[in-house]
Design goal:
With about 300 residues, this protein is an all-beta fold. The protein is built from 1 helix and 20 strands. The protein has an 18-stranded antiparallel barrel. The chain is globular.
Length: about 300
């Protein structure tokens, strides 16, 4: 019988410590792999489960009965993530499965929707840039969201990409549709130290444009990310990052046209170096969304769990 070791930590007094578990260069908590592969591998992390709760103003913390689940391969790559949600009052889950090529690059990202499974399949050039992306509908041999084996695949559409490097400060990516016609261009700009400072994207037809700009602190860490969704209208969303003295991200503040809208705070345990909780606060309503994490490790029967004792 498995033994479970429960470590009780006060959610809002959890101490910050060295934790490389999040890869800040990737979009955090999306359907893309965003965990630090080396950290996961070196610490033999097999799975992470995040339990969701919430807190309104002048109310207690209430469990939502919903979870996030992340499972890893032994080399530290993300194998599957599951997220539960309520659909018409019934608990359901969304699954994302990942497969990798011989070089460890993402080859297949497979998700489910109300109709079944669909996937994005990737091929790369010698510089490890994606040159082909194929969208497919997939049939699962099993009636399961956690276990998938391809029964049959239907190719729906294919997009291709090419790249051009002008010099050390500018590169361009071309997007081609199924007719082999360019429909979008993305230009990347870099400073003299090789840091990405701007991504400028425009559609060939319609002239729709968007832009991301990046700022860095004195240690080369991302400090601000500005997103311009409508350059003509001047609308801007800014994310401001702060770190502890070791380089772990502590919080991300989001501003819409300079109005502070939300804050994501990350809590770490100084003893285990693991992420214990994530707190998302809506600034206007002060509503808190809390995710607390527990861990399972390869080769061990012990599950490390962080629970909240606040009432």
């Amino acid at each position: 019988m498995q033994k479970t070791t429960v470590i009780i930590i006060l959610l809002f007094s959890a101490s910050f410590g060295f934790c490389q578990i999040l890869d800040i260069t990737q979009p955090l908590f999306t359907d893309e792999p965003f965990f630090n592969q080396n950290f996961i591998k070196q610490n033999n992390v097999k799975s992470i489960t995040g339990s969701i709760s919430s807190k309104k103003v002048r109310d207690i913390i209430r469990s939502k009965g919903l979870d996030y689940y992340y499972e890893f391969n032994k080399n530290g790559t993300l194998k599957i993530q599951l997220s539960s949600h309520l659909s018409s009052g019934i608990k359901d889950s969304t699954a994302v499965n990942y497969s990798y090529n011989d070089k460890g690059l993402l080859a297949v990202k497979r998700k489910n929707d109300s109709y079944g499974y669909f996937s994005y399949n990737y091929k790369y050039n010698e510089n490890e840039n994606i040159v082909l992306q194929t969208y497919c509908r997939d049939e699962n041999k099993f009636n399961s969201k956690k276990t998938f084996e391809l029964k049959k695949q239907y190719i729906i559409s294919t997009d291709s990409f090419s790249y051009k490097k002008y010099d050390e400060t500018q590169t361009k990516k071309y997007y081609y549709n199924g007719y082999k016609k360019v429909f979008k261009e993305q230009t990347n700009y870099y400073n003299e130290y090789g840091y990405l400072t701007e991504e400028y994207t425009k559609f060939i037809i319609g002239n729709n444009k968007k832009k991301f700009t990046y700022e860095y602190d004195e240690q080369g860490r991302l400090s601000k990310k500005h997103k311009y969704t409508s350059i003509a209208e001047g609308s801007k969303t800014t994310e401001v990052y702060s770190y502890d003295e070791i380089g772990n991200v502590l919080d991300i503040k989001t501003f819409d046209n300079d109005r502070h809208t939300s804050t994501k705070q990350f809590l770490y345990d100084s003893k285990t170096m693991l992420l214990t909780a994530q707190i998302i606060q809506d600034i206007e309503t002060e509503f808190l969304r809390i995710v607390q994490y527990r861990y399972e490790f390869f080769g061990e029967e012990t599950q490390l769990q962080f629970t909240d004792t606040l009432k």
